[in-house]
Design brief:
Number of helices: 3
Distance between the termini: 60 Å
CATH class: Alpha Beta
Radius of gyration: 18 Å
Largest sheet: 7 strands, mixed
Helix content: 10-25%
Shape: globular
Order of helices and strands: EEEEHEEEHEEH
Structural class: alpha+beta
Number of domains: 1
Length: about 160
């Protein structure tokens, strides 16, 4: 048996949190939320995908459905699991679903603004917000998720 030297410490990091996020598409544009510009949240003041933290014991799909209801009063019936994006702090479960209602039919209950964002703005990494009256950046991970989705979609459509 080996004893640890008293100066050796084992730092355990917190387990990663699980979130579910939605790629909601309408007419080759993607629904994004301008996140509140407040300290303490990830990507404050940036455009991101709708979704959020899973509750204990909640499946990613159930969490996604709950978050979309809470954030924009939108019901998704059968989202399609796309991928997971993991880092040391967050496991992001990504789903796809078509957006079948107009923006006016959505009720923004969380966030600063929402918009259907086109490919040009996704590539640039910025989108104009009517409410903020300025261009705001896309969150890095959100831009990457959308660019990966778009690349895969157009690759598959070319076959």
């Amino acid at each position: 048996m080996h004893d640890r030297h008293p100066s050796e410490t084992t730092v355990k990091s917190a387990p990663p949190i699980h979130v579910a996020m939605a790629v909601l598409e309408q007419d080759e544009k993607f629904l994004m939320q301008l996140r509140d510009d407040i300290p303490g949240i990830l990507y404050p003041g940036c455009w991101g995908l709708f979704g959020g933290h899973l509750e204990p014991g909640e499946t990613p799909e159930a969490g996604l459905k709950r978050e979309l209801e809470e954030e924009i009063s939108y019901t998704v019936i059968s989202p399609i699991k796309l991928n997971c994006y993991n880092d040391e702090k967050v496991i992001r479960h990504i789903y796809y679903a078509p957006l079948k209602v107009s923006l006016e039919a959505l009720i923004l209950n969380e966030g600063w603004d929402l918009s259907l964002v086109g490919l040009q703005d996704i590539r640039r990494g910025f989108c104009y917000s009517q409410k903020a009256e300025q261009e705001r950046p896309l969150g890095d991970i959100h831009q990457r998720i959308l660019m990966d989705f778009i690349a895969k979609k157009y690759k598959n459509n070319a076959k």
